[in-house]
Amino acid sequence: MQVVGAAGIGKTRLLSEFARRADARGHIVLRGSGSDLHRDLAFWVFVDALDEYVEGVEPRRLRLENLDADVRTGLAHVFPSLTGLGGGTPGLQDERYRTNRAVRELLERLAATKPLVLILDDFHWADPASVDLVASLLHRRPAAAVLIVLAARPHQVSPRLATALERAVRDGELERLTLGPLTSDEARELVGEAGDDAHARALYDESGGNPFYLEQLARSPRRSTTAIEDGAVSLAGLQVPPMVAAGLAEELGLLSIGTRRVLEGASVAGDPFEPELAAAAAGVGEQDAMEAIDELVRQDLVRLTDVPRRFRFRHPIVRRALYETTPAAWRIGAHERAATALAQRGAAAGAYAHHVELSARIGNVDAIASLTEAGDRAAQRAPATAARWFAAALRLLPDAASTSQRVLLLSRNASALAATGQLAGAHAALLESLAIVGPEPTALRVKLSTTCARVEHLIGEHERAQARLETALTELVGADSPEAVGLMMELAMGAAHRMDYESMRAWADRAARAGRRLDDPALRAASVAALARAGAFAGATAQALDVCDETAALVDALSDEQLARRLDAATYLAGAETYVHRFDAAQRHAERAMAVGLATGQGQFFPLLLGTLGSLWSLRGQLAGAAEPLDGAIEAARMTGNAHTVAWALFGRSMVALQAGDVELARATAQEGVDLAGDGRPSHLSAWAAMALAGALLHSGEPQKAVDVLTDSAGGAELPLTTPNWRAHSLELLTRCLLAADRPEAARRAAACARATAGPLPLALPMAMADRAVAAVALQDGEAGTAAELALRSAEALEQVGTPIEAAVSRTLAGRALAAAGEHDEAVAQLERAVLDLNRVGASRFRAATERELRKLGRHIHHRTRPGQAGETGVASLTERELQIARLIIDHQTNTQIAAALFLSKKTIESHIRNMFRKLDAGSRAQIATAVERADRVAAPG
Predict the structure, then answer these.
(1) CA 849, 851, 855, 858 torsion: positive or negative?
(2) Topology of 2-178 in CATH?
(3) Domain 478-603, CATH homologous superfamily name and number
(4) What is the pTM of this model?
(5) Which of 235, 731, 768, 814 to pair with 159, CA 20 to 30 A apart?
(6) Digit-coded pLDDT (tens) for 49-67
(7) DSSP state letters, 50-63
(8) Which fold has domain 874-939?
């Protein structure tokens, strides 16, 4: 739920009543609040709400020790009370979504026995990490009785939060309650004014029915109805009526000098504040501060909180009014005193960075170091905050600062900005760095040029990026140096952005020839991998196959430590192997790259790797374990704000959703991917996204729209902009769409084009897809025998390639053709085999289509009960996750391999297997496999 209203309109009071009623029902009620002075503390709103409560919960109730290691680590780096849960790093920028998932799991455990109501007030002041977390929770709600209530002022939330909230309202995931002003009668009731006298009317007119303004005017010592000045007084962007501002001033004017000074110190310390920090900021002793706070509580200017030794202002407007009326020079000193006090008590640099930012002198070495440390600590979990601290440190650098120090801060700032999608700012920082280092072709300049070109590719300035890299290459003295090889690889990858695959291949060939001459195994492997990828993209398939062999030997010979130096070697190899349809090898290399990247803190290739793995999981029928990491990839990509990264992740998710039978999700994710990738210029990404959308549209009963999407994105009826090795695959889909749209002549042309495209390629998959396209047309033309022969040949080839769902689709087509040819028993046999294969991998929609064909032939279909229902026994009692693991056991995978495939811990896999031993009364993995295989056979029709 979202509660929306202007400052003072009554949001906090409404939430208090909401909390009281929820508590009376026996719910767990936890409250946190954003603050304009805490917008730089990562996850502050959630820490404020949850930390104290979690610290006091009986450990056995939450069973946090049973959480996966990455979940424990994520929680440990969010909540101070859970720092003992895990060690290690807080995760990669590219994997911030794991922290969000850790908090989601914590909420689920808190709500395991009682409903949980989490109230987050003043969320318009939330820090970026808290905003990301709420966006994640809106996208994927906790699987428990959890109600999250947000309160925020209208038009003051961040664009990212506003987008997430609007999407949630549209999808029916969020209820929005907008608060308006009180009526005149309600206003009189609130302030106790009797009758309809002139004073009550004046109060109402001046306040506009705003409850806070009404109460402030009513408590004003003079209760004057005469405005001090015309117009409004601005406080923190709010237009506060002058009488209200005057009333606040009068109320504060009644305080003693000492008490007023402590209150001013508290306004600097924050809201909520601790007495010790308020005293330090005010420059008074702690005992004097405590006495002053007692008076302030009596005057209802500050109030107690549920946390000991923590106080809040009566209202944020009171704090802001007080803060802005303090003398500017005194305020600088107060911030400096607060920073010193926090540093002396051992607080993390991020806890006092904002005080340093507001008080430090230019050239202050300690301040620069503190801000840099705060930025480094925030970079992984909260890069938006890190960018603020790096920028603050840059402002404090003296003119005489060293080039290396300034460039280091600029580079870190650029990285943090890029991680949050602020690509223009990142680009500006990199250009400034290049201007500082000068024109000499140093290793630093090459590195900065490469990074700058990557950002330029992301913002669509491909020609500028290419020119920058070519200039950097010509400036290098050694054409065979490691720097030169790296630049040529970047030039090859840049050509791919422009779909100039021949240029991509030429640059990659130069890089590989130079790389082979270097005594650097990792760089050699990476350069040859770039050539394999370029050859596969360009359709030079024979060369690509040979170079894949060479690259695989080089990569497999690298230790993990060596591979960590050039993670692109395994990443590009996996992409090349996917394009030449070596799916087993591609998955193995992609998963190794992921594992090494996780272990060494390198996440820059994760979006590409997860997109590649998503395609592989879909093709290979590994659907059950694919959704979770792909959802994570989408979530992580959204945090970056980079449209192409999001689109690539959405493509993988759409393909898996379509194979699993969730056409609605497949269509939604594919449509969003097309919208993001379609920047008016053709690209391989837009073509892939369109293919996913066309598949979803076909299954939604809109074949002509699917045809339009395919042909518009890929350059026409022959889809010339698709890569050669996958063109037959796209043309086969186009053939089916045209047949469904009752356009047989166009379908014949598409099928013939698929056959012509596949013929020259030394690959089985394109010809198998072409055979299926021609078979579909033949069946439409009444040539059932020919159709059956081609479809069966397609099915057998696709099984050999390792694409079980595509093979089953071909086998279903063969069954239809055999039935049309009068071969009833053989048709049934082929359809039943297809159903069994589709059931095994969980491709429910395709299975349902095949079962319809069986029903037409008079076969009865029997389905077992959904896995995991209460009261079930045997295989029927297994959860979806347990069935997923069982099927990987059937594939002879070890626990370690299963854990890697599902991105779970080995301990979690072992726990699931123990549960299966108990449920199936099994004594070995083999018995689990036998039981599940037998159940699948029973579930098949027949």
Answers:
(1) positive
(2) Rossmann fold (3.40.50)
(3) Tetratricopeptide repeat domain (1.25.40.10)
(4) 0.72
(5) 235
(6) 998 888 888 767 777 666 6
(7) HHHHHHHS-HHHHT
(8) Arc Repressor Mutant, subunit A (1.10.10)
